[in-house]
Amino acid sequence: MKESLLHFIWQFQKFSKSDLKTVKGEKLEILFPGYPNSLAGPDFSQAKIYLDNLSWAGPVELHVHSSDWFRHGHQTDLAYDNVILHVVWDFDSDVSYPNGQSIPTFDLSKYVAASTLENYHNKFSPKPKFISCERQIKSFSKARWLRYQELLFVERMEDRVGFIQNLLKKLKNDWEATLFVLLSKGFGLNINGNAFFDMACSIPFKRVLQLRNDSLNLEAVFMGQSGLLNHPLKGAYQEDLRTRYHYIKSKFKLQIPHGIKVHFARLRPANFPTLRLSQLAQLYSKSGALFEDLVGQQSPQNCYALFDVKASDYWNSHFNFDSKSQLHSKKISRRFFDLLLINTLIPIRFTYAKYKGSSGEDSLFEWAAVVPSENNRILSRFKSFEVPQVNAISSQSILHLYKKYCKLKKCLSCQVGFELMKYK
Asked: Is there a domain that residue 385 lies in?
């Protein structure tokens, strides 16, 4: 038994209502199961029951095992002192109020039909090729998908707000420094994002501002702190950057992040860390107040001009040090800018709007709606199930759904799985 299924059965009263009794033999009648509580405290609030013909109203707590009450520490939490009913699947321990009186406990397992459990297992238990509901997912309509995607998108952005707020706190409420670290992570994409994040955290932003008059100095410090200027050196350009880096590192007493390692494998040449760090250096050489520029823009299209930069001239004929390539400038492409927009720029604007006291949701949806849907293996699988993907709101919401619900098999916390169970 999963606790999510237990919650579902209780919320929709999917069990026999005849001759209900608590584990102590008290006659039980359920007038209202309560409202689900997604915050701290008991699972359901404002429930109404009759217990031996006495009317009770208040919160209800659910557990698979009644002993989970102690495992979760509820016996020391005042929020649980007024629970009127403890609903369990396996009664293995008595639970009491602080005064020693037993909390009424209802063993739900004795009243649930085998068909209810069989319905759940038939839908979600057979080993799937991709996700648990893949055989039924097409029955979830396009209109419901689009509504649900909006909720998932906001949920994903709220997750990022929490991350950004924590980073902002560490950086003493410096929004420019926070954007620098987040952009660095974005420039690293999935493969090098964490390494670029550590690199940026190792360089005080005031040093970036001091060095920005010479883009090669910025390129040197970004690559040096990322471990790309170690011996053996490959050519005069890398040697020049290393010389600059050692002077800057000594002057500002920089420490290389422990264990940092960037990768080239499984990356297209356009995403090589050498090119992305050079582009990042050119970006901050162009402007030291990117956050101020960003929040002043009225549309995402206007932001593109802020990122209209290319890697330094050496990289016109290289993807890596001393490795020749066909001659062309390595500009930030529109596709890469769209990734930065949806993964970095929109989340930090959303966070700033909330910081200023606005919900920020209108701007959030307006900006995200103009970004095309991404394309990767996970999104392709969902597309094969006819899940609509009209823009970045769709693709971001689906990625969030897969990571936070599908992979964790939280089927009954997902609107799709919830609906598949609800009416069957």
From this structure: no
- The string of pLDDT tens digits covering residues 345-404 is 999 999 999 999 887 788 899 999 999 999 999 999 999 999 999 999 999 999 999 999
Question: Is 148 part of any domain?
Answer: no
- Cis peptide upstream of residue 232 (ω within 30 degrees of 0): yes
Model confidence over 117-149: pLDDT tens digits? 877 776 665 667 788 888 889 989 999 999 999
Choose among 413, 8, 347: nearest CA to 153. Answer: 347
Return the number of other C-beta atoms located less than 10 Å from residue 6's C-beta: 21
Contacting residues for 33 by C-beta, under 8 A, at least 6 apart: 10, 11, 13, 44, 47, 60
In a domain, 338, yes or no: no
CB 155 within 8 A of CB 237: no
Burial 302-333 (b: 16+ CB within 10 A, else e): ebeebbebbbbebbeebbbbeeeeeeeebbbe
Residue 282, domain extent: 171-332
Contacts of 341 (CB under 8 A, 6+ apart): 300, 303, 367, 371
**Cβ-based neighbours of 241, under 8 Å, separated by 6 or more:** 216, 219, 220, 223, 224, 229
Distance CA 352, CA 133 (A): 37
Below-70 pLDDT ranges, the chain = 122-127, 422-424
**How many domains are there within the chain?**
2
The structure tokens 């459990």 sit at 117
261 within a domain of the structure (yes/no): yes
Helix, strand or coil for residue 88? strand
- Assigned token pair, 73: 């520490």
Domain boundary among 332, 353, 384: 332
CA distance 364 to 358: 11
Least Cα distance to 389 among 403, 377, 372 occurs for 372
